[in-house]
Amino acid sequence: MRTPVIAGNWKLFKTISEATTMVAELKPLVAGTSHVEIVVAPVFTALSRVADVAAGSNIHVAAQDCYWEEEGAYTGEVAPKLLKDAGCSHVIIGHSERRQYFGETDKTVNRKTRAAITAGLTAIVCVGETLAERESDTTFAVIEAQLTGGLADLSTGSLKQVVIAYEPVWAIGTGKTASDAQAQEVHSFIRSLIARLFDRSTAEAIRILYGGSVKPDNVRGLMSQADIDGALVGGASLKADSFAGIVNFAD
Ligand code: PEP
Fold first, then answer.
1. Distance (Å, whole) CA 122 – CA 136
2. Is the Cβ atom of 128 under 6 angstroms away from ligand 1?
3. Is 95 a catalytic residue?
4. b vs e for 201-213, b when ≥16 Cβ sit within 10 Å of the residue's Cβ?
5. What dihedral do alpha carbons 41, 44, 46, 52 form, nearest 10°?
6. How far, in Å, is the centroid of ligand 1 from the Cα of 236?
7. Does residue 37 carry a catalytic annotation?
8. pLDDT in tens, 190-237
9. Under a CB-based contact definition with an 8 Å cutoff, are residues 132 and 169 in contact?
10. Contact, 41 vs 71, CB < 8 A?
11. Could you tell me the pTM of the whole model?
């Protein structure tokens, strides 16, 4: 049985006080939820304070990015072990906005993922095709290249610390969700790819999240698909009641 993960990506939103207030509001709304791994990803400056507020609850804290070196002359970067030190258990890597605006490549995703795993974090590795790639029927090839590159040289055992997020770029922040069947088709492809790259039991165990305009009113259909093990949520994760509505999808 795969424990579903519902992760909120807060992107470049929320001050420290807004972020801690939101977690304080969220806690009672999800206190009874034991069947879901709940993750929130605030901006770097709020991580430590959010982790303090979330401590002792069922809410985990993720960073939205990391660097691959442990320390050194790398101005502006944050190492995975410092994210751990700030109270993070997870880190999002390779989000399409980082690929699009900040030059993230499959190679940097791979270095970051390996560093995150070494530091003891769970890496939420994002992949997804653009609209042009979908329309030119290259979705599977794009996902295969992103995962083959992004997960290169990882040991099979280390995949326990990896969660994959399939986020079609055309569905992020657009209000357009992939249909349940469209998402399931890619998730099933990803699971068989993991079996090919690693092995069948690793593929059966890995959690594959869907991301792209997930809301309380469409999460149930997505979660009913055989290979969808949770959601990475942007816009609808910014308010406690709508994020709780997604976390509590089974109620
Ligand atoms: C995201 O940022 O990962 C995302 C899926 O955003 P949204 O839910 O707003 O589409």
1. 33
2. no
3. yes
4. ebbeebbbbbbbb
5. 70
6. 8
7. no
8. 999 999 999 999 999 999 999 999 999 999 999 999 999 999 999 999
9. no
10. no
11. 0.98
The verdict on the CB of residue 211 being under 6 Å from ligand 1 is: yes
Ligand 1 centroid to residue 234 C-alpha, Å:
3
* CA-proximal residue: ligand 1, atom 7 (nearest): 234
Per-residue pLDDT of 35-63, as tens digits, reads: 899 999 999 999 999 999 999 999 999 99
**What's the CA gap between 180 and 242, in Å, rounded?**
20
Distance CA 84, CA 21 (A): 22
Helix axes 240-247, 16-30, angle to 10 degrees: 40
Phi, psi of 60 (to 5 degrees): -100, 160
